[in-house]
Amino acid sequence: MSDKMYLCDEYKLYFKIEDDVDVLHNEVELYNAPFVGNNAFCHEEYIDGQRALTYSIPAMTTMNQFLTKKIHKDELVDIVFSIADQLMYLKANDMSIGKVILNKGYMYIDFDNMAVQLIFLPIDKPMDRCNMEKFIRDLISNMNFANKKASDTGYELIKYFDHNPTFYLSEFYKFITDIKNDNIAHPEDERELMKSAMSAAGAAIQAGMTNIEVPEPQHTTTTSSFKLAKEVKDFSSNDIGFDDGQDESTTVLTANSKTKAGPVIVRTRTGERIRIDKPIFCIGKSTQGVDYQVTDNNSVSRRHAYIINVNGVYYLRDNKSTNHTYLGGKIISSGTDMMLIDGIRFKLANEEFTFKEK
Asked: How many angstroms separate the CA atoms of 55 and 2, rounded?
């Protein structure tokens, strides 16, 4: 049983506990340490002679208030990711996730980063298991989606539980992280990368551009400070339309890709020279599906960025990375192709490279 009231700068929650129930003070300390979106403070006190757990929560929007607005895809994903993120923290510290109140009536959202404040009960008492499926289904059913992209994401979440009757937190965490990072490239996505780059190059030629200019992209901000990269499917060259010499119907995306040696990028920290030898060259830390793997920098996303060859002209494209891609010191907006010129430097997160034509 709990009482709840709203103060000018915070919420206060009181959960009455029986005298024979012990409060686990080590769990109180772990919960009170700020972690991945958690800013609440919990302590034990007596209120009118009754033992209680008291929670102080910085003023945020309640989940119920938030659900009165139209929900966009990024908001839905960030909310579910934040919840799964905190459950992973609790599990890693041997704190039962069954003690989390998975009830939207006791959740609070920070509009700045869409982090969800969860209430955890640090008591020595058996609790029901974490019923994430019931919570997600209830959450989705109470949402008013802003567009088809958002409703499709809601459907993907429901479909996950349809196909996974047994809930494993680590698997669900990977699933929602995949959606959040959105770095899984499908064959049609690769073709769209090339098509858009070729269209941009064609437009530049028709406009009679003779000088190479690096436009200033709009700055973007990340919505979450806690990152976990995701696993991706490994797509072979045939999957994305490369000419393998066996299928006459296969489109050769860059006619000179096999007859002319490509440029190199030089990794500043190690001095390593990486030959760009494919029309679509992917860089990231994944063990699969990349052409150059950054093995020792967790700031780099799994499939962080592409270098695209269009008739001998090379472009850099960010792949919705977590920590952004920078060209000449400026953030590249995701999906924007930026022309690479000899000697220019770019960064994937904090990992610097130099593009060299020879």
From this structure: 11
